[in-house]
Predict the 3D structure of the following.
Amino acid sequence: MRAGIRGWYGLLLMVFGTGMSGCVEQDSFTEIDTGDVADRTFEWNIPARFPLPREPDANPVTEEKFQLGRHLFYDQRLSGNGTFACASCHRQSLAFTDGLSQSVGSTGQLHPRSAQALVNVAYNASVNWGNPSTVSLEQQTPIPLFAEFPVEMGLNDANRDAVLARLRAEPRYTTLFAAAFPQQVDPVSYDSIVLALATFGRGLNSFNSPYDQYEAGNEFAISTEAKRGMALFFDERTECFHCHGGMNFSISTFDRTQTFADTSFFNNGLYNLDDRGSYPEGGQGIYEITGRQGDQGRFRPPTLRNIALTAPYMHDGSIATLEDVLRHYMAGGRNITVGAHAGDGRNNPNKSGFVRPFALDEQEFSDLLTFLETLTDDSFINNPRFANPWEG
Amino acid sequence: MGLKQWFWPVCLCWPGMAFGHGATGDSNASLQLGAALSLNAWSAGAADAQGYWRIPGVLMGGEALPVEKGIVLEDAVLWGAYRINDQTRVQAALASHDGGVELEQASLGYQTRLAGQPVQMTLGLQAGDFTPSAMTESGSGQLLAGSLLADAFWGRSFLDTGLQLAWEPYEGVTLGAGFWNGDAFPASSGEGAMHVQVQWRRPVAGWSVEAGGWAMQARAEQRGDARYNGDGGHSHAGSSAASPVDVRFDGSTRLGGVWLDVASPVWNDWRAGLQYEAVRVRPDGALSDGSHVADWRADDTGYAITPGIRYGQWRLDYRFERLSLQNHLQGAGAAVLADESALANSRHPKRQSLQLQWKPGRAWTVQAGYTVDQTLSGEHSGRYGLGLVWQDVLYERE
Amino acid sequence: MSRSLRLLVPVLAGVVLSACGGDDNSSTETTLTIPFAARAGAVDIACGAVLPALGTTGLSGSIADFAFYLHDVAVLDRNGKSYPVTLDANDFQDAAGGVALLDFQGKTDSCQGADKPVNHEVTGTVSGVKVANITGLSFRVGVPEALNHHDASLSQPPYNRSGLFWRWQSGHKFMRLDVNPVGKVQLAYDSNGSTESNSWFFHLGSTGCEGDPATGAVVSCANGNRPAVQFSSGFSVNNLTGTTVVLDYARLVQGANLGQDAVAPAGCMSGLPDVECVTLFSSLGLPFGTAATAAQSAFYLAQ
């Protein structure tokens, strides 16, 4: 028996010894290799936890192009008649929109659309209210410059050379253009102007609202009411997040870690002129490009960041206040009873399935509004980096 | 991967449990019907604050749901086995887990001879036989806390439709193989899996020694986390959304393991035992969530060691389980996907359990245990559990 | 040398030389100028010219804008085989892309501004065919798909004519033929507060385009709208100049009423819901929606 017990003891030792060492002591780790996706030598104004937007191969971002773009953005000499700048419809204090329901061009022509807020536009999967073919800032930039129907900045074949001559005459531009496009002999050209303005737009990023601070870990950055409003926003009852979800509060967002972009367009029941779902002339959504009746009234959902600053709302500015926007969605669409645009948008056949009526009591209504207000980023509208360089 | 990686500890052990809910193979009855019920009560749940149990560093799925606080009917099974003739038998089991009754097993078994030695073939919906913890569920009474290796690597239980073969060329040595449709995690339905295994059950000088080794390969296509997303799962992408993002895996997973179950001879009603199991899992493929993709390969190992002693109807076990998880993600979407699928990790998730079990009769088992669960990051508090298992043959006919 | 040999040499030389000169389509290269004319009936189109008898109501009008792009220019021999013309590089032609701009608007600002250059011809070289064997001509109107949606085209001729940008639809207008009819165009709808338009526009371009944000470019257009024009006979080259190709605006709009417009915009800008486009597309031999495709009739060869 003794020998048996001793043998048993020895075996026991061997067991635990080998058992423990037999399980090779391995590290636990996760190695993530994203290539050069996270390169941040440019001052994007995007916190590290968010993925960066795309950069086109033909127009990589540089600080010099950004500064040139910024100078051009605020320069009235870039318009045909010298009275208008990009900033005339895109004002920093209003998150780069103009507070009008429909913008007015340099020659006084009325635009069918409300100027979009230039907030995080680098992430836009498509860059117009209703156009599935303009998918980059470089495609968009010439539109306001050269458009004729209506005239916006008013550049055309007659004055384009004269406008370039104005820019050449400005000594600051000699340095700025040369720094931005060092390989070009004569960098003052419309191609350079477009690339510089697009780069400026790419740098206008806003991720520092009280909501962002809350998400980053500061429990007290937003009020309890706002937290309740946030729960309502991400709820299946309101369905807000379905079109205005994600880090950019719009699902039409595309960053450089993604392989597939959602160029989404939704009809939210604003009009229904003929019970076939038609929208008024000039504001028919992507139908104007595709010609398909089912595309009437489908527009891109813009970001809700800084939404409290960008009244009036919708593609034609036809909803004046944020409260009215909420009531619109609560009703599941807009019923216009009198006038040229009469029709019940709630019955629009092309209306997105996510726009359904829902009820909110007074407290919930107020909470949801409070939440939307926490998306206002004061550091964005006051950032001197985006301000007018010609003043002081 | 190979048996050489793990040493072959000769040790004190515990006799293995009867596996699964099926009838024991030795019965002479032509028809057997039985049932099993398992009731658990826990003082705390295993899930995180949002109610999800995703161990950082490993992509889980299958049915590896966390224990819940309170009293839960863990398992209710009705099984039957019918012998058609000497060689052929059918077996089926109806089970209810978390509400809803489903056909859990339905198989046809056929016994014949190969090179003079018996070979058993089983075709149909059945449990995988490659390792003990693939066949036991927490309700079968072995361990109240379940198996962390099973939960992490094959979704707790391996139930699939396929063909299993077991051939006993020598007394106590079984060679087996399985060919599966892929319904069980880590495969995905239709993609298939297959395994091979060897088992050794022979007493050595009065000691009961059972050991085995196995290897499996499983393919998956668009495999999600069936616990939370499933197919066509509605995922709410958004920084405030609580529901996990639906990340899908395409690729293959290779698994392999060894296990050992040793029990000492009985001495004055005392017996000591040791169980050891180690598994290595290597997935290799791509992850996607609809708008990001990344290449992913991982090298995970886990082991569980359970020494215990038994005296009469009483049994005391201590189990220690630990995982080492190495993940490599590559691609533009790597950081986002690592975050969404909870693969970012630098810890060794582990769990320790102490359990006291009393088996007053053939049918009843009472368990009381205490578990310190460090599988999720954060605070680690212990939880108490009580388990009651009843299993019996209700009807038997010659 | 003997007498017979002296005769032989010129004979042999003749045989050899004719053998060299020989095959119909050996390595010949010819410079070629193809003149284009734009007319309305018999009247040449230019700023200020009064174009009579336009459309179904026979209105007169004058142009505001008149230009179009061509590409894939080729000459045809009597067997129908085509030989591509390599365009020269100049301010109105992209030699590498094979695109030419024909511009008949002599003044800027819708013919109200200062003088500006016009271009009435396509110049290039063609090889592999003898001049005498050229009997036909083919080309396509517009900018080819591969070049239509490139960035950096704002400054490079011939793409830098701002009036032919069509950024809203992404790309270039292939034809811009804007005419101001006498009595203006009466609109059946309200356009920015007015029910009249000075001009009856014809802007031809690709529609139904979709972009791919991953590449930042347009990837496909449902309707290319690039009319193919082919003359199998009647085209000949004399003194390095081909037969004049005429674009007859009157033939283009013969089925349209230039004094009215039912669907915005005034005239036709290629959009599918625009009913005024049906007859114009038909004159160009282009399909439009569900309308049957006819043979093009707007271009013809001068006699």
In short: Confidence is low (pLDDT under 50) at residues 1-22 of chain A.
